[in-house]
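Protein Record: Sequence and Backbone Structure Tokens
======================================================
Tokens: labelled as protein backbone structure tokens, with as many entries as the chain has residues.
Question of interest: how does this chain fold, as expressed in backbone structure tokens?

___
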Amino acid sequence: MKTTKLTRLVLISLVSFSLFNCEKESEEIFETNQIETEKAAHVCIEKWNTDDNISKAASVKAKEWETGQTIRVKFLNGNSFVQSKVRQYAVEWEDYANIKFEWVSSNSSANIKIGFREGQFANDGGSWSYLGTDSNNQAHSMHFGWFNNNTSDTEFRRTTIHEFGHALGLIHEHQNPVAGINWDKEAVYAYYAGPPNNWSRAQVDNNLFRRYEANISNYSEYDPKSIMHYPIPAEHTTDGVAVGSNTQLSATDKSFIATIYPGTTTGSGNCDGVSAYNNSASYTVGDQVTYQGSLYQLAASGWNNLGPCDSAPSTDICSGVSAYNSSTSYSVGDQVTYQGSLYQLATSGWNNLGACGG
């Protein structure tokens, strides 16, 4: 991800940041010369078993792990710091999916095998994962091509959770069967033909435009906030609709993965083991469902909202986010904590996402 040069910005309230010239003795200095993350973000490359049917969508359901399964994961290389960051963020899926990751030594057998861009993998600058149980058949099943000791926590979180989503069987959200993105195809072809992707038109078709078949794929309502969505700049669509760089699990991500791997999770929240609402299902009084991040129970008079899902390990929005450091260069989409609140860098400045602990 490209970074920007530091200029000065002072925090003047708990709600927003405002730009002005300040002296050296100002309380804090924040970065303001932004870039559009949608244009600079690294994107994941899809990986499939070479013997799969070219349509690929036909085998999505078949690539899910067993509910409640312990999935063994090992690192093929990488230093202790980048390995620790992958472990830190990968386990967020355990709070909502009834699976468990077991981290084993490099010489042990494993289902998921992770490489970094060094040594024998020095020429692979992409990040990718094989889909679900395809990982079993690969000696190198997941790769992080741009992680190093200077990678921001936001980028570690975004990419790690995304790739482990693929490893659990999730497809790219912009290829959801019900996604209705109005692509400006020629603009997209031209953009991805250049570095760092250098994709052919066929690769663009496969990674962006092709949608999965509804009757053979697990899918939810289209979710532009999904961690599995590519960032899309406005100039890549004919109607100017853009999608930002999603850095955390959305409410739909959480409820949907619980329908794929239902049951007791490692979290202790009120929505653990509760399936997402399905408009094709028949419900009776007393039944509970999750819908758009909240828990509902059916009463004689209709659905009662019992409150937001609150799996214990994820209630603090600042969990795993580093404090702001005036010596660090930040990129659009990065998150920091500052004076008890969580902030995210946007093209217009730092946005306050709320108080830590909430």
